[in-house]
Design a protein that fits this description.
about 350 residues, mainly beta, Tachylectin-2, Chain A, 20 strands, about 40% strand, globular, binds 2-acetamido-2-deoxy-beta-D-glucopyranose
Length: about 350
């Protein structure tokens, strides 16, 4: 064994000091927005590690089957999933159109953190209507279910969030807003003039709308969240990285592309689109669903729904606050034909309970 001399220890200390200040200066480029990585965005790696994250629960709908299907990761692999309940739905709506699309699992925040989850989704059974009617006189409600264990989903409700001037309410999602202490719920709508009560004429562009709720029963009056008039925007998906740093992915429904924006000063802070107004992640896709990797703290996964083809395909990036650099992931163990949904990291207790309940 080599004995370290005091001189060698001083040399090592000097080397470590130089190395850490170099690392800090590389990281500081992130404030410009172009070189963001998760460390710049304040992801608390130690906090995620103490959550013992051991797998992932996915909730999706399948093309012709507008119900909620659960998928569980094979071990702690973010790209390998198997169907729960032998491929049968876990939730079938009984209200509204009796079809649910775009199911998203909303983790509880504040006093509901780790104790409560919601699934919300679009009230639309396209087999019983047409795409034209679904946008002119579609449902103005969002489906809600809730659970205290991610297994037993109860209290189905259909909550109307827009008035009669709205043509539809699509792809609702929600995120805990730490600054407000409530859930920010958002969805896409277009609107008809009050002089056109049957919605036969021309609507507005499609914009993102939002309301706040504490219980997914009563909501504040809706307001516009994102309006890129005349561009149509749908399918908004937030990824919180710290109490103040967020990514938001969305679909340009006019150009059929998905892109990301970044804020480092809150949900209502300054949002920038890295790469500029034309920058995109992918064309011909919708329903972006992002989630952090449980193992590699630098990595973000992004599911993109190739709606004209085989549904969700996974993408990944270790520099997620940009529109460039996303690469297609290995799809060998990723199921085909999953449509717009969401993925939730879970710990070993929940993973095992889901496995036992749904028999896989
Ligand atoms: C796993 O998560 C559940 C739900 O939040 C929680 O009740 C449980 O205590 C957690 N288990 C471990 C081992 O952290
Ligand atoms: C499911 O949750 C409901 C409401 O919390 C409860 O009444 C019921 O007993 C639960 N069922 C099971 C099987 O845990």
């Amino acid at each position: 064994m080599v004995q370290a001399t005091p001189k060698a220890l001083w040399a090592l200390a000097a080397l470590l000091f130089t190395w850490s200040s170099l690392a800090a200066s590389i990281k500081s480029r992130g404030s410009g927005g172009l070189f963001l990585d998760l460390a710049d965005l304040g992801v608390d790696v130690t906090k995620r590690q103490t959550n013992n994250l051991a797998g992932y629960l996915g909730a999706f709908f399948l093309g012709a089957d507008p119900y909620v299907y659960f998928y569980l990761s094979n071990g702690n692999d973010a790209l390998s999933f198997r169907a729960l309940n032998r491929g049968q739905p876990v939730i079938r709506p009984t209200k509204g159109t009796t079809g649910v699309r775009d199911p998203t699992i909303v983790p509880g925040g504040g006093s509901e953190s780790g104790r409560k989850w919601y699934i919300i989704g679009t009230d639309l059974h396209i087999g019983r209507t047409t795409w034209d009617a679904a946008q002119r006189t579609g449902s103005r409600g969002i489906f809600v279910w809730e659970s205290t264990d991610l297994i037993n989903w109860t209290n189905e409700r259909l909550v109307t969030v827009e008035d009669a001037t709205a043509g539809m309410v699509w792809a609702p999602e929600a995120i805990w807003d730490p600054a407000k202490g409530q859930y920010l719920v958002h969805w896409a709508s277009k609107f008809y003039p009050t002089s056109d009560p049957r919605h036969t004429g021309n609507p507005t562009n499609i914009r993102m709308r939002y309301a706040y709720t504490s219980d997914f029963k009563t909501f504040s009056a809706p307001q516009t969240l994102i309006d890129k008039n005349p561009t149509n925007i749908i399918d908004l998906n937030y990824l919180p990285l710290s109490p103040t740093s967020f990514l938001r992915f969305m679909k340009d429904e006019t150009r059929k592309t998905v892109f990301v924006e970044v804020s480092n000063n809150g949900l209502f802070g300054t949002w920038t689109r890295p790469g500029g107004d034309g920058a995109i992640i992918q064309t011909g896709v919708e329903g972006p669903a992002s989630y952090l990797d449980n193992v590699d703290p630098r990595k973000v996964h992004l599911l993109l729904d190739f709606y004209g083809s085989d549904g969700y395909r996974p993408f990944e990036s270790t520099n997620p606050g940009t529109n460039s650099g996303w690469v297609g992931s290995n799809r060998n163990n990723f199921p085909k034909n999953l449509r717009h949904g969401s993925v939730l990291p879970i710990n070993g207790t929940v993973y095992e309970a889901l496995r036992q309940r749904w028999g896989v």
